[in-house]
Write a structure and sequence with these properties.
The chain contains six helices and five strands, in the order H-H-H-H-E-E-E-E-H-E-H. It has 141 residues and is of the alpha+beta class. It folds into two domains: 3-84, Orthogonal Bundle (Arc Repressor Mutant, subunit A), CATH 1.10.10; 91-140, Ferric-uptake regulator, C-terminal dimerisarion domain (Dna Ligase, domain 1). It is globular, with a radius of gyration of 17 Å.
Length: 141
């Protein structure tokens, strides 16, 4: 088990959350796959190991991880929520053909936030940036 998964499990335990085998498996899958899976994809990946686990169990645990600040829900045009266990500041580039999502880092966009505040009077609380294109696999086809 990665130290990142172990640290996350310890954080949950500290808040009084019981670590069930399913909870551990869902969190580990999310943190190790980093491919922004849907709840159904998580369920299908773990179902052979946990045949009694339901899709509802996956959703309930994802909701709990989101409330704990350990997972972000990503909603894009295809109406299926995807889940990201990377909660650091980063952005996404999305393939318009296959829907693949990849993370990328970029220096702070504080200038953009500041300009938005100055021109609108808003207090910016969050920023989400998405770039769209064609991934390398789809380009080759």
């Amino acid at each position: 088990m990665s130290t990142r998964v172990q640290h996350a499990l310890e954080q949950l335990k500290a808040t009084g959350v019981r670590i069930t085998p399913q909870r551990h498996a869902i969190l580990a899958y999310l943190m190790e796959s980093m491919n922004h899976p849907t709840a159904d994809e998580i369920y299908r990946a773990l179902e052979p190991k946990f045949p009694s686990m339901s899709v509802a169990t996956v959703y309930n645990n994802l909701k709990m991880f989101m409330e704990a600040g350990m997972v972000h829900e990503l909603t894009y045009g295809d109406n299926s929520s995807r889940f990201d266990a990377n909660v650091s500041d980063h952005f996404h580039v999305i393939c318009e053909k296959c829907g693949k999502i990849e993370d990328f880092m970029y220096p702070s966009l504080k200038d953009v936030e500041h300009t938005a505040e100055q021109s609108t009077g808003f207090k910016v609380k969050d920023l989400r940036m998405e770039l769209y294109g064609i991934c390398s696999s789809c380009k080759e086809q």
